[in-house]
């Protein structure tokens, strides 16, 4: 499994990788520091899961989400918003534009595990959305 971690904070990208390492899920990481950079990474890597921050330079996470969901190739790509923007309005907006799930920072390993294992289980049954 290849995970695209999109966050302008190198520290946050490292925290996400550490959480996945603790989950003992064999995976590779591709990193991007903006939505614009993430779009380029999607073109050059086979990505199975995106963890996406909301606030970033050049292109926000929500703008990235809108552009990715407009492409047929990525309509079913699991994208989890991982952000400090946890208001009800923001959660609704993220789901409206195609987020698969939502996590509020600071990142909680237990909730990340639940969401990722649910996605992996869905992949195994062929019931991805």
Summarize the structure.
This protein has helices spanning 10-23, 35-44, 61-69, 88-96, 109-125, and strands at 2-6, 28-32, 49-52, 79-83, 101-104. The protein has 129 residues and is of the alpha/beta class.
Report what the structure shows.
This protein is α/β, with parallel strands linked by helices and 129 residues long. The chain has one domain: Rossmann fold. Helices cover 46% and strands 18% of the residues. The chain is built from five helices and five strands; from the N terminus they run βαβαβαβαβα. The protein starts with a strand and ends with a helix.
SSE diagram, text form:
Elements: E1 2-6, H1 10-23, E2 28-32, H2 35-44, E3 49-52, H3 61-69, E4 79-83, H4 88-96, E5 101-104, H5 109-125
Parallel strand pairs: 1-2, 1-3, 3-4, 4-5
Within the CATH hierarchy, at the fold level, what is the topology? Rossmann fold
The outline comes out as globular
User: Helix proportion of residues, in percent?
Assistant: 40-55%
Total number of distinct structural domains: 1
How confident is the prediction overall: mean pLDDT?
Answer: 87
Q: In CATH, what is the class? A: Alpha Beta
Sheet having the most strands: 5 strands, parallel
Q: Tell me the β content.
A: 15-25%
Radius of gyration: 13 Å
The low-confidence parts are 124-129
Q: What is the terminal separation in angstroms? A: 18 Å
Instruction: Find the count of extended strands (DSSP E, 2+ residues).
Output: 5
How do the helices and strands follow one another from N- to C-terminus? EHEHEHEHEH
Number of helices: 5
Oligomer: single chain
In CATH, the homologous superfamily goes by the name: Response regulator
Structural category is alpha/beta
């Amino acid at each position: 499994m290849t995970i695209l971690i999109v966050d302008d904070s190198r520290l946050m990208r490292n925290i996400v990788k550490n959480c996945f390492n603790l989950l003992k899920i064999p995976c590779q990481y591709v990193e991007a520091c903006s939505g614009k950079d993430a779009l380029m990474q999607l073109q050059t890597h086979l990505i199975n899961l995106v963890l996406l921050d909301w606030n970033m330079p050049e292109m926000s996470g929500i703008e990235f989400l809108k552009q990715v969901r407009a492409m047929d190739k990525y309509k079913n790509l699991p994208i989890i918003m991982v952000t400090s923007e946890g208001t009800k309005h923001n959660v609704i907006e993220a789901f409206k534009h195609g987020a698969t799930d939502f996590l509020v920072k600071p990142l909680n390993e237990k909730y990340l595990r639940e969401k990722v294992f649910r996605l992996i289980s869905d992949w195994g049954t062929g019931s991805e959305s």
